[in-house]
């Protein structure tokens, strides 16, 4: 079995042949002219190599950037991330982690591809939409960082971030880029994030459920305090081209919310195309889609037997996790942290 990771535009000289390198050069033709010549370099790791790397790999530690907890690797690469050069036609998708990120990514891709399913299967979500701040320690092997993928992705690019608004590279604002932000109610977001930590060895050790609830309320988790994250982007929407969506609205009326995205992207889709997008991006379809459910990425790192990447996608699942005492304490803390904002969430439908 092979794990294959492809990067467009990487020279073979910069690859690591000891890990197994395949090279493919592709030249696209358009209207009789030759253009977009690119080299695709594939890193291949057999399963034994992946297991060997996995044994050496330990869960990441957190380090703060301007008071926000990020991974040590992100912190080490922060200057490159902060100085990332956005392009005017970039679209940035932003969320707090486990707030519907992959869902909105698939919706956007379907809209951009006019609901052509084959085009949406061209690559996994990780490769279609570079995750700009993400990278793994060098000890894990030659897996491309989000910055590397972004640099070789042709325009127009759709990019992803979990950064709070104040840490987004300023070039996105300088270039007046469009941003789609999805927010999910805090309790369901916390539950999903906890299960994600358990199944994903790239994340910090979550501890017990009780410990994770406390970490989440204190902002001592990757990408910082949820309350500040959603409020920061909410306030920024009046100053920048930001479409702010709510996970709960998307669950309740997906067609209506997808139409908002269509208008924001200045697209004109026929009814049958819109209906196809609604069907393809349902939770049931997404959960079984190998191009979106992360069963084709990071094998040995994400353990789907512990918890699937797409677990339930429900609104109100927090009731199955919070004790009465935890819920009361969380509500009191939430009221303090969310005081003064016009931002409102629904924790059940």
TrEMBL record:
Cellular component, GO, one term: cytoplasm
Entry EC number(s): 2.8.2.-
Chief site of localization: cytoplasm
Compartment(s) of residence: Cytoplasm
Entry-linked InterPro entries: P-loop_NTPase (IPR027417), Sulfotransferase_dom (IPR000863)
Keywords noted in UniProt: Cytoplasm, Transferase
GO MF annotations in UniProt: sulfotransferase activity
Enzyme class label: transferase
Coiled-coil regions listed: none
Sulfotransferase domain boundaries: 88-341
Family: Belongs to the sulfotransferase 1 family.
PANTHER family per the UniProt record, alphabetical: SULFOTRANSFERASE SULT
Name of the protein in its database record: Sulfotransferase
Gene: SULT1C3
